[in-house]
Polyketide cyclase/dehydrase/lipid transport protein
Amino acid sequence: MRIVVFVLIGLAVLVLALLAYAATRPATFSVERQLRIQASPEQLWPLVSELQGFNRWNPYARKDPQMRSHYSGPPTGVGSRYDWESSKVGTGSMTLTGQQPGRAVQLQLDFLKPFEGHNQAEFLLEPAPGGGSTVHWRMHGPANLIGRVMGLFIDMDRMVGRDFEDGLQNLKQIAEARA
């Protein structure tokens, strides 16, 4: 019986130490990837500024062809909204919150499942020297204690970054075929 008590106390100390260490981690996270694409910002604009255009190259939609989705609000511009529900990539919504035509789009991402999260995303288009564009895909948001504990075991930048890289490659393929 005494051994069980010592084991339980040891486990409690380990859990508390893990939580204490996680609490010292940054309270925000940020992920960014970029790719040079041989298309002008004007040619890329409909693919990043319109949610239906985005879903032509969205790596998450490609992970689950059975994803249920719904568009609402105006078809383009601030207020455009896209909701999704998927057993593979979760449930959430994306709302266009700002744009600088031909240059940048800001989005609010709200994840409901498998974990709740409220983040901001941005697509930035920069003319590249010698032609084409550099496309930046950024996401940042708060990291609650659960997220910080998970971050000790899962590298968010690597996990989400791979998806961003896949998405930018999809965008490149579509845009360069059109250019």
Q: What stands out?
A: The two ends are 73 Å apart (CA to CA).
